[in-house]
Amino acid sequence: MTPYWVIATLLVASSTIDASPVSPTSSVKDMLISANFTALVDSLVANKLDDVLNAKGPITIFCPTNEAFKAMMDNKVEMVKGFNTTQRFLHYHVVPRKLMPTDIHNDMTVTSLRPDKHLRFNVYGTDKKIMTVNGVMFGQPTVVTPTIVMYKLNNFLLCASGGGIFDLLKIRKNKNNQERFSILVEAIQLVNLTHTLEKEGPFTLFAPTNDAFRRLPDGVLNKLLATPAELKTILLGHIVSGTYFLSGLTNESDLPTLDGRSNRIAVGNTLTVDGAKMNVEADMLAANGVVHVIDRVLLS
């Protein structure tokens, strides 16, 4: 199964979409049909979400394209992961306020129609042209009326894990249902960074897997676990203040880490951070940031 972040990278929303001319008296349903979000309309109708279809606003809808529905149809369990019902999943794409691009700033969180589920917005680049919601890129509004805004998405919005980054690390397992980050979790607890990664932030964590720790030269891991001060410095070098999704990482980006240094990002056939491959898995969303999996420990 293709990882969600790969699909998100391949299906990039245009940033130059012109708003469709619609009558402000049209219904939300008619606006969606006019903008060719017909699969979304079908899903809203099938799930009896009249509160969205007949909404008067103010409201903002993040609209997955028909192609997004087609691409994800065979992966419905992943689509609704974190939600009890499809209705709640669709409500997660709707914000009960009008959001224009000028209203959006970096690392802003907004409550959706699921009040227990927040959306995280990010704005990247010196020209602030790259905008994301939960890591999914979007551009200018497709539909704008005095009370209603619609944005095109080439992917669905997945929700953050129930807790922060530390909680996410504890529950993630590999394809063999084995703990994936247990060594990192142990190290974080040893140097008292648990609260930081669970309650503070937002942060971006470049997370070495258990295999990455096992690739260290003989004796290095045991030495680090026996010297908490050195271990803490190394772990802080994996943490960046702020939320940097894959779409916000550009070639030769320097991201300042909590140890006072910086991580150099290189974008090419393989995405790397300080030379460590980052194409294992990216954009794992937590309540207080995002986690990118890397294949080695950053020692320098």
Automatic annotation (TrEMBL):
Any GO BP annotation: cell adhesion
Domain of life: Eukaryota
Signal peptide per UniProt: 1-19
Entries under Pfam families matching the protein: Fasciclin (PF02469)
Domain FAS1: 24-157, 168-298
SUPFAM superfamilies according to UniProt: FAS1 domain
Record keywords, A-Z: Signal
Gene Ontology CC terms: extracellular matrix; extracellular space
GO terms assigned for molecular function: cell adhesion molecule binding
Name of this chain's protein: FAS1 domain-containing protein
Source organism per UniProt: Daphnia galeata
Taxonomic path: Eukaryota, Metazoa, Ecdysozoa, Arthropoda, Crustacea
